[in-house]
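Tip: read the tokens left to right.
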């Protein structure tokens, strides 16, 4: 009887040790475990920020219905695989991203957000006013303090401009009052002459955005002789997600 009881105790101790070992290997039910429905997600989105190449972009954007290439295949195939086509930043548990869309007729942008488990949401198209010619060598999506910005270009006859949409929560482009970054206007009557209005400083303080603009007249053949003709300040107030200028008469004057 004693031997039987001892054997039972040994068996019970062995079973308990197995249960403890098994339970220690189980995930903590309070710990968030991310499951990304697209296998390409982790290869693109990691770290606090980064760039997205064309090779990474496809077929991720097609599978997630972010954009399509119908009627614009030639535009995409001519772009090298390692060419930068997007940029992203971490926000809360997910990311916000901006990608270039080269579909006809004009190059445009698509911004979207991701959730912690890799789902795509809040897809927003952002359109340039004709051609994208104001980015120079930098990608036109970035951060100013705690805000994101996207740079939108405008072109026309003897005219080019740049506007900044500045936000924390990604809005529709239609709900934005952009910040004018610069306006360049050429002269039709006087060849090579131009007038340029541009931001020289920009600061955000809470719900206020402070800008200083310079205005200059010049000639394309001798830019170093450009003459400053005016400077002014414009303060913007954030209201219902839009930056509203306290005075826009200078823009009317120099636009």
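Filled-in amino acids:
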């Amino acid at each position: 009887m004693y031997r039987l009881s001892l054997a039972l105790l040994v068996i019970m101790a062995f079973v308990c040790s197995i249960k403890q070992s098994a339970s220690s290997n189980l995930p903590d039910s309070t710990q968030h475990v991310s499951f990304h429905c697209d296998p390409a997600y982790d290869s693109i989105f990691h770290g606090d920020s980064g760039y997205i190449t064309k090779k990474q972009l496809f077929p991720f954007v097609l599978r997630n219905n972010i954009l399509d290439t119908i009627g614009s295949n030639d535009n995409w195939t001519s772009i090298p695989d390692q060419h930068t086509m997007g940029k992203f930043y971490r926000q809360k548990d997910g990311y916000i991203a901006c990608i270039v869309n080269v579909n006809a007729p004009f190059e445009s942008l698509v911004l979207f957000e991701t959730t912690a488990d890799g789902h795509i949401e809040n897809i927003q198209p952002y359109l340039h006013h004709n051609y994208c010619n104001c980015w120079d060598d930098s990608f036109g999506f970035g951060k100013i303090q705690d805000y994101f910005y996207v740079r939108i270009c405008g072109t026309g006859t003897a005219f080019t401009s740049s506007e900044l949409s500045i936000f924390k929560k990604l809005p529709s482009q239609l709900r934005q009052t952009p910040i004018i970054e610069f306006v360049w206007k050429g002269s039709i009557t006087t060849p090579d002459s131009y007038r340029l209005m541009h931001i020289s400083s920009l600061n955000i303080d809470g719900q206020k955005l402070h800008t200083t603009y310079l205005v200059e007249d010049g000639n394309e053949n001798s830019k170093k002789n450009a003459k400053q003709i005016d400077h002014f300040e414009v303060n913007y107030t954030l209201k219902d997600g839009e930056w509203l200028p306290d005075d826009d008469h200078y823009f009317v004057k120099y636009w």
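The longest strand covers residues 193-205. Helices lie at 2-24, 41-44, 54-57, 60-63, 73-77, 249-254.
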